[in-house]
## 1
Amino acid sequence: MRYQPKMRRRRECKTDYQARSCLLKQDKDKYNTPKYRFVVRISNKNVTCQVVSSKIIGDEVHCVAYASELPRYGLDVGLTNWAACYCVGLLCARRMLKKLGLDETYKGVEVADGEFFETEEDEERSPFKCLLDVGLKRTTTGATVYAALKGAADGGLYVPHRESGKQFPGYSVDNDNGPKYNAARCLHYIMGGHVKEYMEKLEEEKPDEYNSRFSRYIAKGIKPDDLEDLYRKVHAAIRANPDMDTTARAARESKYSKASVSKYVGQRKKTRAERRDHVLNKILAIRRKAAAQA
């Protein structure tokens, strides 16, 4: 039997096609109705949240938000931690709803409280529904992809998730009382409380390591007690203006535009006559040099 190689992105360990097929399958009686996905991807230096639908020719991105946009809202440091992922999810949700004209109808949780929240249907227009797509990320309790989910849900998107709160920090299982969810603990993470605890611990026990690990916080004058107020201001700023910065977008598009001329210009291939003349000129130059020395 002939060996059947796996698909390229499966060989590269970039796509889980079993999970992707489950997210893309649509009922036949819905015809060509798009099935939207809330895609979360987290790298070492950035967080990306997208609202994506699939077509035969490929995926179509309807809205995107990056952690690299957060400095515009007042958050300059810690752009990949739990609290920052929440902010990016909130930004993507508010941006998508504003694009659809649903931002006034579905406001979500205006002041974060950590409680379970799922958007309920309005009488006039249905909420915008999308399914969480985490890629190859491990979906353990308290994972950062769930921070983006929490931000999107609080922002007004309808992203189905279980009511038990098993995804978020604060979920625990007691042998006597069974599973329980502590919303205050989740709010603690949303407001960067875990970062505050670590900063205070290092500052007290290892000052040198504190100065090294949190040098950017120190340069910005951010102290452990300032984090909660900082994140609340960022949430308010995102809700006030979730639009993408058009100047930054234009600069990024011009940078990667195919019409832009590269400063690295390759040499044109020489014709046969030019190559023959080049060799002949080198031979004549060598002969003249030899004649001059004689």
## 2
Amino acid sequence: MSSLAINPPKMTKASTPLDTVNIPVVLLTVAIIASSFAFYYQSWNASTTLVPAELVPYDVEANKSAKYAESGNINAAISFLGLAFTGAFCCLFKTEKTLPIRNCIIFLLAFQLFWIVASLAWTTNLPVSIRRVPKELCVALSLYGLSRHLCLREIAWAIFGVSTCYITAGFIAEIYHGTFNPFWRYYRFVGTEHPNVLAVYAALIIVTGLMLFNRNAQLRWVLWSILLAAIAALLLTKSRTTLFALVAALTISGLLRAEAKWRILGLIAGSFLISTLGLAISIFNLWDRIGVAAAMGRTEHISSLTGRVPLWMELLKHAAERPWSGSGYGAFWDSRMIQRTSEIFLWEITHAHSVFLEALLNLGIIGMTAYVALLLSTLAISAKATLYTRRPEYQLVFTVTLFAMIHGIAEASFYSLGFESYALLFLIYRLCRECPNYDPLQSLSTSSAQRSSPIPNTRQSLPYKCDVIRTNDSSCTR
């Protein structure tokens, strides 16, 4: 068996992304996804209606989430049916990129979808679950169809494009309404959606943008401009969880792809920097100032993670009532539970503020275990693919998945039906198809003779054209 080289061949001018990425398909994908989620989730007047909680006390009568939790929404039906139609249309065309069933990720995806549908049998609120489960099926059909025709690099462009559209629309909306005031003490960048959600969009721009820099020398100044705007948007949202998760994910991802000596030097330098910084803070008694800076000016209830810890303690009591099966997909947060929980903690609560706790409440220990196994399997496969091929596409999957897991400790965005979870699943669905062509049981520690052997000049031996190992170029031909 011929061995595969660890380092891919250098790219030539003829194999740049502008030549290999199907730009019309990517643009059409961006238009469909951005319009679908914007039609349901985005609000042009969000910056005028979302008021900082520090200025307005909680009003029981004004809890709109509790009022509309069990009501239907025609916009949601149109949005998700549009995504499903797109996926079904893509399934009509044949493709050479067959699904490698031996990849464990596809089984975990299938089981998670099965468990969601099966939860209709024991749900505590059948009307709510009946509306939520078809949406999940529409998303799955959309992802299955689109992932048949877009390679990871094209998906990265699509995620970058959709997120950029949302951030740009947010800036335009605030400037139009006159609510863009970054120097105000209580200001948070709202744009067209909640600041915590916009922060995730900005983080996705940063992660995908850093990957695209490696392949787009001629567009680097454009990408840098968008990247700087995304960093500014992230800081203006004052979302501490997203910022911490992004920095942690990028740091670990950088160490993953770095050579062994640079990993060691990075760990030593990081340890020295943290120790020196801690010593300086102790000597000059800067703990209060550092705390305010780390909280990004939002110091209310910081000791309890902005009220999350008491909320988690309360929700764990409810999870213990149905530990294995949960309340059913989407059934836990009905109008009664939203109203009751919001009255206890005096702020509007519509989710558990934790991906893992949200999965536990809805689908029980079995569903949560399947979801965690899906994320861990994606991490393991993408990490091995990154080390094996040195391709930034696999590093992107690893970084986004790790970011979602760290972010999911204190937020539940990646378990919702929004674009953030759609982007994560888009990468995972494609990873099922575009995984490295190597034996999973084969160790990465091959001999130096195997590593130095040339790449076989047999393109016919590859399972599909958009494979991770190229012979002459890096094209993603259809």
## 3
Amino acid sequence: MAPGVIDAKPYTYVALHDQSAVAVYDHGSSAWLGSIAVGTAPVGVTASPNQQRVYVSNHAANTVSVIRTADRAVIATVGVGNRPMGVAISPTQPRAYVANFGGNTVTVFDTGNHAVLASVNVGNNPSGLAITPTGDRLFVANSGDSTISVVDTASNVVTTTITAAQSRPYALAYLANGASSRLLVANNNSASVSVLDGASYGAIATTQVGAHPTAIGIVDASKAYVLNHFDGNFSVINPTTGAVIGGAVTLPAGAVSLAVAPDSSFASVTAYPNSLARINTTINAVTIPVTIPNSAKAPLTFGAFVMNPAYECALDVNNDNAYDLQDATLILRYLAGLRGAALVNGVSGPGLASAEAQLAALNLDADGDGARIATTDGMLLERAAVGMIGAPLISNARNTSFPGVRSATLILQWILDTHGANCLP
């Protein structure tokens, strides 16, 4: 196995709405790992892109619980707006977004220090959220007035309000596919999914599905699942064209929540009163459900609540499953010309013996100017390791004379795309 990669082990985090807790199911061992106490009436459950945190919106407590996945401990409780529901985490910035159903706002907080940064006014009764892979746009489904707010995440300002073609947009999903990128909208009251162009927001299709769709899970550019709560099944559609693929697939009675794993290998479904089922995404087959312990009646879970927590970051040069200042020190030293004992002196970790060879193989041109330089590329990678973004990330650390020099946002995206999803804190 390559340095910086450990085996994936899939988990599903289920909000126990009636128990003020989250239960964790280990798909590898087919066992429940116990429950985690959170706030009152948890609903939204979303894992961070690097799978190191899970964020839980507590609908009746007006808070978000932050769970560290390594030991399943609640490490912070963040006060947000009234009746929070959906949660989205930026893939490129240390930012969390929370839809406040009862407050008509979205709370923005820093995922590093958990400080609240902004409250963005949106439409009525915001529920579902989706964010672009570059983290530049946040989409908010306003179920109370049938609109979708588009938030510019750099300014935390609503730049566009889309009037939904169908009634009560509730859940959203974004497909990144170049010119064929799409925004998918599940419309509660219309038994339909709207497929919009991901850039212009023009209508591509309106697809009739089952009654009261409550979740959309994208498997790939040709397959997505839509959970039809009132019909107890899910529809399979092409998220690019909106075409329905085959007939609806029956789910356990009371199915209410659905999420696709980050690697698209399976999907999890929760159902009233207390069951969890799994969908094989290759053949769209549903497994026999397992019972959720301690859930009396309400495994309502809204968001990206399935994890494949593989640690993957090629910049983890010392191979300790964290990209941090120790790795950044090795990168800076290597770019400055240090080799052998001088390269690794004072740095710890199990991968030091292969550090020099690994560094030689890495693309370390962070600013994109075609050169690998300690005072620019090394500095950028060091700052990224400690969570710097925006102007502090790039200040005096790029070859600005190069016409195609990367912006701060593009540098962070390059790190994720080139070196792995776990490379940003």
